[in-house]
Design a protein that fits this description.
Mean pLDDT: 87
Largest sheet: 5 strands, mixed, barrel
Strand content: 25-35%
Shape: elongated
Number of helices: 3
Order of helices and strands: EEHEEEEEEEHEHE
Number of strands: 11
Number of domains: 2
Strand order of the largest sheet: 4-6-7-10-8
């Protein structure tokens, strides 16, 4: 026996409120709207990061490791490079070429260190041909933006290399501190492009742009509208026709 469905007469047309289709539409619209709102939030967050990144404020003295510095805050730090212990951050590309980011510890007055990302350098003919990352050990001041180590979508455990400079893939800061045998600032410094002793430094906010997140949001809201349109089409018929 067919269950009763409310019917709305609209002149030459009639609309039958089908319970199953209505429930499916409600779930779909709620899901698509939630995803759209989430993408709008991500767009706003990325836009704020872009603004922080492009803001050229004065460089502040590097605070102690116990104080968290806002991401992309420009800082200045004094010390000397630990030329004997450098990390080569693997799986980094630039303009389609494979290479590494050179992370050099800057030894501070309190005997701790902060990693300075001196930029991207390419491999040689093979991956075994590591770039020359030698740098002077004189006392210096470096200026750059505070950032964090890149994080992979999936992290695979791997035994650290033994030689220096040490090739490493998506490490945690505490792992690098353990290998150095000294305290490390929880953030690193992206060396300013005009600073000496660096490599390729086309710094930019990683990940999806705010505009693309906005585009994704529009797509999800369009799906919600489409779900409503399908629901209407399923329930609409000409008066006198079977529903």
């Amino acid at each position: 026996m067919r269950k009763y469905s409310p019917v709305l007469n609209l002149g030459r047309f009639r609309f039958e409120l089908r319970p199953v289709a209505t429930a499916a539409m409600a779930v779909a619209v709620a899901l698509f709207a939630a995803l759209g709102n989430w993408q709008l939030e991500r767009s706003a967050e990325k836009r704020m990061l872009d603004e922080d990144f492009t803001r050229m404020g004065a460089a502040l003295p590097l605070p102690p490791a116990s104080i968290t510095v806002p991401r992309y805050q420009r800082v200045i730090a004094a010390g000397h490079y630990d030329t004997s212990h450098q990390f080569l951050l693997d799986n980094m590309s630039e303009s389609g070429s494979a290479g590494v980011h050179v992370l050099t510890p800057l030894l501070l007055a309190d005997d701790n260190a902060v990693l300075v990302d001196r930029g991207w350098a390419p491999f040689g003919v093979t991956r075994d041909s590591l770039p020359d990352v030698a740098v002077g050990s004189a006392v210096r001041e470096v200026t750059g933006r505070m950032d964090q180590l890149p994080r992979p979508s999936i992290r695979l455990a791997a035994a650290p290399a033994e030689a220096w400079p040490r090739l490493t893939s998506f490490p945690e800061m505490h792992e690098l501190a353990s290998q150095l045998g000294r305290g490390l600032h929880p953030q690193l410094i992206l060396l300013d492009p005009q600073e000496p002793d660096g490599f390729v430094r086309n710094w930019q906010v990683p990940g999806t742009t705010s505009v693309r997140h906005l585009g994704y949001a529009i797509q999800w809201f369009a799906f919600a509208v489409t779900a409503v349109a399908i629901w209407i089409a399923l329930g609409l018929s000409r008066s006198g026709e079977p529903g």
